[in-house]
Amino acid sequence: MGTLTITGLGKAYRQYSHPAARLLEWFGALPRHQLTWILRNINLSIKAGESVGLIGRNGAGKSTLLKLLTGVSVPTEGAVALTGSVAALLELGLGFHAEFTGRQNVYMQGYLQGIGQAQMDALMPGIAAFAEIGDYLDRPVRIYSSGMQVRLAFSVATAVRPDILIIDEALSVGDAYFQHKCFDRIRSYREQGTTLLFVSHDPGAVKTLCDRAVLIDGGGIVMEGKPGDVLDYYNALIAPQATDSAMRQGLPEVTAGGGMRSGNGAVRIGQVDLLCNGTSMRAVVAGQPASIHLQVQANQALADFTVGLLIKDRLGNDVFGTNTHHLMQALGPIEPGDRKDIYFEFPALALGPGHYSVTLAAHASSDHLAGNYDWWDHALVFQVIPAEGVHTIGICHMALNFHQQAVEPS
């Protein structure tokens, strides 16, 4: 089975002040370079069958780490130990020869994976069927679109179930239909015991596919744990104007309810409640009218600001979100000390039975990256119970009409 152990891993590149300095060093002069560290002191252990997502900002070192794990790049320090077969899909088209046909590239990739001619002949029909690129399979790769390249690359990389599957963000290039196919195959391999390590900026994919998430920032591991917790911390980390004391220490505030909170406090969210017919509730009937009420207070003068909400299911998957910017509702101007009561009203709360949490945010423009005033995860937790006499499954409770009609025999 596939296991992965990373110990003290680091990668640095030499930086020379002048091209001549590199030449002098080659001829035995004293070192004339400085090391620029991309990754340092990475320690991580992944068990067989575990699924781990790597998240982080662009330039944090995620792709570099995957290259070190797959042998594409050589570490400056530390070691990597892998057991079992490894399949990797890194940079788009990596390893493909532009002048060769897709079929020729498939065979070459198979040989690099240690698959013999006879086995590749047997696998080729399945690879072609999964990629669905038609006659382009026998045309040069240089005329492929980026989507066609990722289709073929994923198809050949996963033609044989590996012990370890490593995937970079390349899957985001494919169309929605092919992404569904890819994730179905990944889920199938997970169920069969494949260890998964992949980079993604899609929180839904991380929450759905991963047992654990690892956040990389500044070339090191900042946090690892449950995907929902790590993604909440990541949201706080990427808000560029968050300046409250918790963020200055590099850690988000953890509220009494366990949710993470960040922001510079220009606007602060106060009371939060779920109302049904004006009564505070924590359990509502599916399809019942309800509203989320919150009070905000300004701590500085603002021409305008935005308040948004995001409803998540018990696994942390995003269910529904919107904000006053998208609803075209202006909330400003506002002066220090001013308070506002805000109501998000649902004529029918169309959620299926289950437990849900509400994340709230106050920010400058269309999203919290434009100026994070207050971001509050798990500000409210509530339960939806089934409507009497109605049985449904899933996270939504959609209005549905049904009728039937007899067909006269011909």
Offer a few descriptive terms.
alpha+beta, 7-stranded mixed beta sheet, Coagulation Factor XIII, Chain A, domain 1, 34% strand, 410 residues, Rossmann fold, single chain
What does this structure look like?
Strands 10, 11, 14, 16, 17, 19 and 20 form a 7-stranded mixed beta sheet that branches. The chain has a 6-stranded mixed beta sheet with strand order 5-6-7-3-8-9, with helices on both faces. Helix 3 packs parallel to helix 5 and helix 4 crosses helix 5. It is globular. The chain contains 9 helices and 20 strands. The termini are far apart. Strand 16 and strand 17 form a beta hairpin. It folds into 2 domains: 225 residues, 3-Layer(aba) Sandwich (Rossmann fold), CATH 3.40.50.300; 133 residues, Coagulation Factor XIII, Chain A, domain 1 (Distorted Sandwich). By secondary structure, the chain is an alpha+beta fold.
What is the CATH class of the largest domain? Alpha Beta
Radius of gyration: 26 Å
Helix content: 10-25%
CA-CA gap between termini? 60 Å
Q: CATH homologous superfamily name of the largest domain?
A: P-loop containing nucleotide triphosphate hydrolases
CATH topology of the largest domain, what is it called? Rossmann fold
Largest sheet: 7 strands, mixed
Gross morphology is globular
Tally of separate domains:
2
What CATH architecture of the largest domain do you see? Answer: 3-Layer(aba) Sandwich
Q: Which structural category fits the helices and strands?
A: alpha+beta
Uncertain runs: 240-251
* Content of β-strand: 25-35%
Can you write the helix and strand succession as a string?
EHEEHEEHHHEHEHEEHHEEEEEEEEEEE
- Number of E-type strands: 20
Mean pLDDT level:
86
> What is the oligomer described by this structure?
single chain
